[in-house]
Amino acid sequence: MDLDWREKLKLLEQEIGSFEMSKLEDVERFRIKYLGSKNVLKDYFALMVQIPATERKEFGAVINSLKDLANELFTKSKDQFEESKRKSEPVADLSLPGLENGQGSRHPISIVMDRIVEIFSKIGFEVAEEREIEDDWHNFTALNTPDDHPARDMQDTFYLKDFAQHLLRTHTSSVQARYMTQNKPPFRILAPGRVYRNETVSARSHCQFHQVEGLYVDKGVSMADLKQTLLFFAKEMFGEDVKIRLRPSYFPFTEPSAEMDIYWGLKDETDHRITKGTGWLEILGCGMVDPAVLENCGIDPKVYSGFAFGMGIERQAMLLYKIPDIRYYFENDLRFLKQFKPIMS
Ligand code: PHE
């Protein structure tokens, strides 16, 4: 090298230090020149061979320090430009309307189910929830409904294709069998939940709906206890003046069996429609737990007796809220869902 290399690198250092970077493009030019793949420092490095061996280490160190300097200046300028760019951009348009913080509301079915649970909890019933995919035994066989029993036709069942003997429960009565096989009496339980039946969907019936099952097993439980319990419920739910009637009926798992209607009256058009013009609405099935069912579930029918009931939720909610069509419950239309306020006790 003609000039002393120390001298040369000093000049280079000055050149780097005084590089004018007033525009973003200058920063890019700087990067290409001193840090790019074909940068000036590399050229200098290539000159290493011409330097006396004893000075090479020092030479390398100086070149490296120049590289560090270039890096530092580049990062600093780049950051400055980015910062000022950020500052000059509008942060947000504060005059725009805010995002609506929409308040959710409860589904009428949930409201009515919660109210039912609340009423029965006053007289000692505890909630016991169970699975919706059941096996045949808990949904039918344990409940006195063997394979060839005609009562199986009463409820059109959805069976699971790949799991033989499994089905979508057709009633919450399956929880009776689950609970009785796993617990020792006395107990009073309430099982709210969804059930499924292969039915044609219309304004009055659906292939999915909700029930609340009640079960009370103890020594000396009688039909009178059942009736008083249901009367208490009806008054709490529909008001002191409500009338109830029990009609004899048939279920394979209760004996005797009954269905309960409430007299709601015919105050308006929805009442007419839902009660088919009679003012009476059937809301539940009930009866004394059949001794054979107790036995199937490992409870001695000579010691214990019990009552059970299963009520539909959709129809009660229709009456309370004047909902004309069962399909509304499952359509998720916000205009429908927004309307419901909790029922006050
Ligand atoms: N499981 C019956 C139904 O779905 C109702 C019921 C429950 C009847 C308990 C008697 C006892 O129709």
Helix content: 25-40%
Give the overall form.
elongated
Structural class designation: alpha+beta
Q: Which stretches of 5+ consecutive residues score pLDDT under 50?
A: none
Q: What Rg, in angstroms, do the CA atoms define?
A: 40 Å
| Main sheet: strands, sense, barrel | 7 strands, mixed
Query: Proportion of β residues?
Result: 15-25%
When the domains are counted, the total is: 2
Individual helix count: 12
Bound ligands: phenylalanine
Give the CATH topology of the largest domain: BirA Bifunctional Protein, domain 2
| CATH A-level architecture of the largest domain | 2-Layer Sandwich
What is the N-to-C succession of helices and strands? HHHHHEEHEHEEHEEHEHEHH
Q: Residue-averaged pLDDT, rounded?
A: 91
What's the CATH first level of the largest domain? Alpha Beta
Physical arrangement of strands within the biggest beta sheet: 1-4-5-9-8-7-6
TL;DR?
By secondary structure, the chain is of the alpha+beta class. It is built from 12 helices and 9 strands. 38% of the residues lie in helices and 19% in strands.
List keywords for this structure.
single chain, 345 residues, BirA Bifunctional Protein, domain 2, seven-stranded mixed beta sheet, 12 helices, binds phenylalanine
